[in-house]
Structures are given as structure tokens and as C-alpha cells.
Write a structure and sequence with these properties.
CATH architecture: 2-Layer Sandwich
Strand order of the largest sheet: 1-2-3-5-4
CATH class: Alpha Beta
Number of strands: 5
Number of helices: 6
CATH superfamily: Histidine kinase-like ATPase, C-terminal domain
Largest sheet: 5 strands, antiparallel
CATH topology: Heat Shock Protein 90
Shape: globular
Number of domains: 1
């Protein structure tokens, strides 16, 4: 077995101000436990309550979206894995999340995120209200709806994302929100 130097890993995480780092299968219970740990850390750091709630909300929305998507796709435990990182940077808190997606779904998400990134705060608010008024089709897959718009509204800079082809018509979708 190949060993990992945990001290080196810890030093790198500390140098990059990473508050939370997770990689693996994600369940609703795990989302809650990690979220509670994140909230507690933000409170002990005396983060402004509104900022702490926005960081927590974005973390929850991104991780729940990953979990719901994997369930809808019927993915195995390996494919339903998520990679989540929360880091404190000069420009604010960065919440990053990524997962395996069907390539076509990933392209749709990238297009949606790019469209939202081009909107100013007023346009995002209007888009949010428009989405609220639209009837929800229970048969359609959720995604790229209110939650993503809400994340965009909470972000201090436009969302960014990347899509990396992993083969077999699957890709790894990464989303970055800065709060």
C-alpha cells in the first residue's frame, strides 16, 4: 500500500486555509455532520452571522445537489462520490464541490452557470423571481433551478465551473462559489 504523509497534507491544507475537505460517498447524514462542523468553525472564528449562514447555505445546496443527482442517476457508491472543499481566502470564503456527471448533463450545467455568471445582482433577483413563479414539473430532474440562482446571488463574484471528460460519456463537474 502506498502511504500518505499526513503531516505534509495537513501543512498544505493549512497553507491554503482549507477549513473543510471531503472526498468520498456522501449521504444526507454526512452532509449534516460536515455542515455542523463547518458552522461551528465559522462561529468560533467570529465570522459575521450573515456570512456564516451564506457559506453554510451554499455548502448545503451544492452537496445536496450532488447527492440528489447521484440518486437520480442510480450511480454506484464510487460514482456517487463528492469532492467538497471550503477555504478562507482574501476575497472571502470559497465553497468548491465536484462530482461525476453524465457528460451531456455537465455541459448543460456549464452553460447554465455561465449564463448566471453574466447576470448582475438585479438580473439574478429577477431570474430567481421568475423561477419561483414557474410551475414545478415533478417528472423533470431538478437542477440548475432556484438553488443555483440562490448560490449565484450569495456569491461575491460570479460562479465558475469546469467540466473534465473522464471517459465513457462521463465527466467531472466542478463548481466554485466565492462568498
Amino acid at each position: 500500500m502506498h502511504s500518505i504523509n499526513l503531516l505534509t497534507l495537513r501543512q498544505e491544507l493549512n497553507e491554503k486555509n482549507i477549513l473543510l475537505c471531503f472526498n468520498g460517498p456522501i449521504s444526507s447524514g454526512l452532509i449534516q455532520e460536515l455542515g455542523d462542523a463547518l458552522k461551528n468553525h465559522l462561529q468560533t472564528e467570529d465570522t459575521a452571522p450573515n456570512l456564516a449562514m451564506d457559506v453554510f447555505g451554499v455548502y448545503v445546496e451544492l452537496t445536496q445537489n450532488i447527492r440528489h443527482y447521484a440518486q437520480q442517476q442510480g450511480y454506484s457508491e464510487v460514482l456517487s462520490s463528492a469532492t467538497v472543499v471550503v477555504a478562507q481566502q482574501e476575497e472571502g470564503y470559497q465553497v468548491m464541490a465536484g462530482n461525476i456527471v453524465e457528460h451531456d448533463d455537465g455541459e448543460k450545467m456549464v452553460n447554465r452557470i455561465q449564463a448566471l455568471a453574466e447576470m448582475d445582482k438585479a438580473a439574478l433577483k429577477a431570474e430567481f423571481k421568475k423561477q419561483l413563479r414557474e410551475p414545478r414539473n415533478k417528472k423533470s430532474a431538478s437542477g440548475a433551478g432556484l438553488g443555483l440562482i440562490d448560490i449565484s446571488r450569495k456569491s461575491s463574484i460570479p460562479l465558475s465551473c469546469s467540466l473534465t471528460d473522464t471517459g465513457k460519456r462521463k465527466s467531472f463537474l466542478s463548481i466554485l462559489a466565492t462568498i
